[in-house]
Specification:
Blueprint (H helix, E strand, L loop, with lengths): L15 H7 L3 H4 L3 H18 L1 H12 L4 H6 L9 H46 L3 H6 L2 H43 L1 H8 L2 H38 L1 H6 L3 H52 L8 H43 L3 H4 L12 E8 L10 E8 L4 E6 L5 H8 L7 E6 L2 E2 L5 H6 L1 E4 L10 H5 L8 H10 L3 H6 L17 H15 L3 E5 L7 H15 L3 E5 L11 E6 L2 E6 L1 H7 L2 H13 L1
Helix pairs in contact: 1-13, 3-6, 3-8, 4-6, 4-13, 6-8, 6-13, 8-9, 8-13, 10-12, 10-13, 12-13, 18-20, 20-21, 22-23
Length: 606
């Protein structure tokens, strides 16, 4: 039997812990508490004013059938002698409620938008300063969802749902008070029927909704079968699996049919329940009420009876809406908890305690460095790593995949801290240097360049956000990028598209090099910067890299021999340890691991 894919349940349970975390939202409302309090005042006034509508409407409907004896004997504050007076009061009530509601909506919207603007900024500020390990544990899609979907959920709740939930509670409680005041006997009959029927109707409706959702899941699954079969039709035909695929689809459609038929049976029962039970309960109350208005000494006046009916209908509608409103509040609490969890996480600035801002000239040394990634404590990546890079030296890192080359780059950028040993910059422990100051003196040109949606000028200026146009052009020329930039009709203002999709691989690499040149770092990291390029692009990029590396300490991670032969030192890594170290000529003379690597490269080229 085909099973639908399990999806994350939308139902969120409110726990003491989740409420405690969700309370964090109040810190964002606090600066606007005066406005928020005034908004609540208007909410109370508009909700209270709404309670008078059923009473006055009942008086209006009952006026035509009221005898003079009833009028004289009625002691109610709002008893009127003619229809016009009651209608006028209703219009005054509507006008008053409209004014209160207007100010409530405007104030709640302003307070909500101000608070959520602060929350968005705070949440994104926390995200952008999170340590790299946080992003290893979290999916970008989930984090994006928290900043968009979760905040939208909170927005709707603060602006509308809480106010509506409060209003419905006021209506239910106010209606009960009035009903008991008018006739406790009829109130007991009503409370024993209408609310119970309304609650049963809500539960019934949710059950049917679940069946429909399940049918939709199977429908989506059947659509997937069609897509897979048609997109892979050559496989279906070559393996002669037309019947197998068709039977698989037939099972799915049968499941859909069975669930929809079952859903139809329950929907029919639901409609019957509404018609007979819920409407029947209302008719029963009206019948009992009318009986109480009859006779020489009626238990209830016609006017109050009509008001009673109006309150009953309004209360039933309010009770029916409460579960949905409560579910929205539950989701908002869950969304707030998610965001508060992000904000509660410690950022890099909180974890990095370094305060020193020394001059960084490019002298780097690793001393007995051991490292494993926080999520994989059982896999040792670097073992007792020792090496030194003098100012302006080029250090090439060579080794098979998983040897620890990229990890060294991550440690240089202080994305992580080693578990043992120290990394020194100009003789100072990296842990003692202020993080922003350290990274300001480094630049990286990765294998896969990430460009931001925007212009070429904006992407180059990412290396120095206050750079002038002449500085940007100079950096582009030195990176061998100005020729292709100038060929575009819009020049520097050419839009690169999402993640730089409008540019070729070589063009993106040269933009990244121009960005690094503009930053003018003391330490440069090149992580397979030419490995994915064709020969012509590689030549242009390599020339630009040679220009970039002049006068800087450079760490070059590469597989191609042409990019590492000129290095002052070549570190041959294997399982996180340095197996060989020396210049190209020295390592060739040793006829060890590096010599074998070069021989394999030459064989591959030939």
């Amino acid at each position: 039997m085909l099973r639908p894919k399990k999806e994350k349940s939308e139902k969120i349970k409110i726990t003491k812990e989740s409420i405690q975390k969700a309370k964090g939202i109040f810190s964002y409302l606090k600066p606007y508490r005066l406005s928020f309090t005034i908004g609540w005042l208007f909410l109370v006034l508009s909700s209270t004013a709404g309670l008078f509508f059923p009473y006055l409407m009942g008086q209006l409907l009952g006026t035509s059938g009221t005898s003079m004896q009833e009028v004289s004997s009625n002691s109610s504050l709002f008893t009127m002698e003619n229809v016009n007076q009651i209608a006028l009061l209703l219009f005054i009530l509507f006008a008053t409620q409209a004014i209160f509601s207007y100010f409530r909506v405007v104030i709640f919207t302003n307070v909500t938008e101000n608070a959520l603007r602060d929350l968005r900024n705070d949440a994104f500020a926390h995200l952008i300063y999170m340590p790299m390990d946080f992003f290893n544990k979290s999916k970008v899609g989930d984090l994006t969802s928290r900043l968009s979907n979760d905040i939208s959920q909170i927005q709707e709740t603060l602006r509308t749902t809480i106010a509506e939930f409060f209003r419905q509670i006021v209506i239910v409680l106010g209606s009960i008070v009035f009903l008991v005041f008018v006739s406790w006997k009829l109130s007991l009959i009503m409370l024993a029927t209408v609310p119970v029927m309304a609650i049963i109707a809500v539960i019934f409706g949710r059950f049917i909704k679940k069946l429909s959702k399940k049918a939709q899941d199977y429908s989506a699954e059947s659509t997937t079968i069609i897509e897979e079969a048609l997109s892979g039709i050559s496989n279906v035909k070559s393996f002669t699996n037309e019947i197998f695929t068709l039977n698989k689809y037939r099972k799915a459609t049968q499941e859909i049919r069975d669930l929809n038929v079952k859903s139809g049976l329950w929907r029919g029962a639901f409609v019957s329940f509404i018609i007979f039970c819920l409407f029947g309960a209302i008719v029963f109350i009206i019948w009992q009420g009318l009986l109480m208005t009859q006779g020489p000494n009626p238990e209830i006046s016609s006017k109050n009876f009509f008001s009673f009916v109006m309150y009953t209908i309004m209360m039933g509608a309010s009770i029916g809406s409460l579960p949905e409103l409560y579910a929205s509040i539950q989701k908002a609490i869950g969304a707030t908890e998610n965001l508060m969890n992000i904000i509660a996480e410690k950022t890099e600035n909180e974890l990095a305690t370094g305060k020193l801002t020394p001059e960084i000239t490019g002298n780097v040394s690793f001393s007995k460095v051991d490292f494993h990634y926080p999520q994989r404590a059982d896999v040792q990546v670097l073992n007792q790593l020792d090496f030194t890079a003098e100012k302006t030296e080029t250090i090439a890192l060579v080794g098979s995949s998983g040897a620890g080359k990229s990890t060294i780059a991550s440690l240089l950028l202080h994305y992580y801290q080693p578990q043992q040993g120290v990394i020194l910059f100009d003789g100072i422990d990296a842990k003692d240097i202020e993080l922003h100051h350290l990274r300001k003196h480094m630049a990286i040109v990765p294998q896969e360049v990430i460009l931001f949606a925007g212009s070429i000028a904006e992407n180059i200026a990412f290396g120095k956000t206050d750079a002038s146009e002449s500085e940007i052009i100079d950096a582009a020329k030195r990176a061998n990028a100005w020729e292709f930039i100038a060929s575009f009709p819009e020049g520097l203002q050419t839009q690169v598209g999402d993640r730089g999709i409008q540019l070729s691989g070589g063009q993106k690499q040269r933009i990244a090099i121009a960005r690094a040149i503009l930053k003018n770092p003391a330490i440069l990291i090149l992580d397979e910067a030419t490995s994915a390029l064709d020969s012509e692009s590689e030549r242009l990029v390599q020339d630009a890299l040679d220009e970039l590396m002049v006068g800087r300490t450079s760490f070059v991670i590469a597989h191609r021999l042409s990019t590492i032969k000129k290095a002052n030192k070549i570190l041959v890594l294997e399982k996180g340890q340095i197996k060989e170290i020396g210049s190209h000529e020295e390592l060739i003379a040793k006829k060890g691991v590096y010599a074998n690597f070069v021989e394999l490269q030459n064989m591959h080229v030939s």
